[in-house]
Structure formats: structure tokens, C-alpha cells
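Researcher: I'd like a candidate sequence for this fold, 236 residues long. If you have to choose between options at a position, lean toward the conservative one.
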């Protein structure tokens, strides 16, 4: 997506982090707190300018993405400003269609042996049961996401479904495919109502503040801690 060059340079000084931790003063924020900052709102991961549905989806994706992939979310911050526009019904329809038709399935055979191989030994029945449960889990999660007429719930469960699939991916290419799906879906959600929004919504004084923020320095220990929290969130 194309951004104003000045805004792009300012966002280069931001590091997106997981959870609600972070401090605008040192350029470390989660995606939604970056939205609040750019819009001139108090530090928060629930800015009033953002659609509750978009917020629910973005928070889960931000928290579960690996650090490097998470930085790809920065250009969405100015686009999320102004999405609290009454169009969440349309966004929920986009979510339902995407979940039903386009979200990539988990690759067959992940973490499992070939289901067509003959089962051997006294644990054969347990192995077959595990394969069936693993195969059916994604469908159960999908059914749960689609079961309620609540756009915010749907958005949260859709993001959790993608995050689970990414975490269980067999390799880096498969993992990237799931995160690309998450980014593509966030792009669609932000597009809803976009022609009616005027301007970027970014406050000039906040942009100037970012421009004077030192570039973030990555702490390896903190990176491992954040990734550990992301893995824990998926188990809850």
C-alpha cells in the first residue's frame, strides 16, 4: 500500500510490539496504540477512532505474529483511523465470506504421519483418534467463528483461527501463507468505507513527534519474551 513518504519515514521509527506494552516516547507500540497515537488520542489499545471489529481482529493478529512479520502491520495504522464509521455490518459480511471461501486450510499431514499408512502396534487406535481430532479441530474453530451474529466475536475468532494455523504450519512458507491471509483480510476490512473517509486522520503534531523519535534498538531477550507470550496466548 502506498503511504505519504513523510509518514513512511516516521513509521520506520516505530517498532510494533505484542500486547498492550510499549511507550510512544521510545517508538515501541502495539498496532492499536499506534493508531491512537497517530489520531491524537491518549495511549490506549482501544482508540475511539477505530472500528471495534477491526480492533478485535488487529489486536489478535498483532499479538500472535512473529516480530518481523508484525512490522508489516505499520502501514495499516493510518488506515484504521476513522473506521468507527457504522459499517461494521459490512465488515462482518466480508469476514464471513472470507472464512467460508478463502482462508487457506492447514497443510495436510502437519505434525502427523501419513494417515493412509497402516497403523501398527498397540497404540494404533490412539493414533487414529489423534489424527481425526487434529483434522476436525480447524473445522470446529471455523464453525465456532461463524456461529454467532456478533461481528466483534467473529473478527476475534477469525484472527485466532489464522494464528493457530500459522503456529502449526509445517514450514516457513506455509506459515507465511497464513500471515499473508491475515494481512490481506485486514486490508479488506480497512477498505470498507474508505471512499467516505476524508484525509488520513493523522495529527500533524504526532507525526512530528515520531520524526524526532530515535530509531528503535532491538533487544534479543525482549524478542524471545514477546514470542513466548504469543505462544502462550494461543494456548488460552
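Model: Candidate sequence:
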Amino acid at each position: 500500500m502506498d503511504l505519504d513518504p513523510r509518514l513512511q519515514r516516521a513509521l520506520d521509527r516505530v517498532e510494533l510490539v505484542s500486547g498492550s506494552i510499549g511507550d510512544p516516547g521510545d517508538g515501541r507500540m502495539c498496532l492499536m496504540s499506534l493508531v491512537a497515537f497517530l489520531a491524537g488520542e491518549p495511549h490506549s489499545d482501544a482508540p475511539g477512532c477505530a472500528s471495534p471489529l477491526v480492533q478485535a481482529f488487529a489486536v489478535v493478529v498483532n499479538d500472535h505474529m512473529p516480530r518481523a512479520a508484525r512490522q508489516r502491520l505499520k502501514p495499516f495504522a493510518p488506515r484504521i483511523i476513522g473506521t468507527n464509521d457504522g459499517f461494521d455490518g459490512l465488515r462482518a459480511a466480508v469476514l464471513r465470506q472470507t472464512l467460508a471461501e478463502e482462508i487457506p486450510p492447514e497443510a495436510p499431514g502437519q505434525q502427523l504421519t501419513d494417515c493412509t499408512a497402516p497403523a501398527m502396534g498397540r497404540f494404533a487406535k490412539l493414533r487414529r483418534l489423534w489424527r481425526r481430532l487434529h483434522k476436525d479441530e480447524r473445522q470446529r474453530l471455523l464453525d465456532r467463528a461463524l456461529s454467532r451474529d456478533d461481528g466483534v466475536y467473529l473478527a476475534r475468532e477469525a484472527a485466532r483461527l489464522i494464528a493457530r494455523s500459522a503456529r502449526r504450519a509445517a514450514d516457513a512458507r506455509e506459515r507465511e501463507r497464513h500471515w499473508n491471509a491475515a494481512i490481506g483480510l485486514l486490508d479488506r476490512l480497512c477498505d470498507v468505507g474508505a471512499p467516505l473517509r476524508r484525509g488520513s486522520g493523522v495529527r500533524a503534531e504526532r507525526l512530528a513527534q515520531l520524526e524526532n523519535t530515535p530509531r528503535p534498538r532491538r533487544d534479543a531477550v525482549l524478542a524471545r519474551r514477546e514470542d513466548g507470550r504469543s505462544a502462550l496466548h494461543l494456548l488460552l
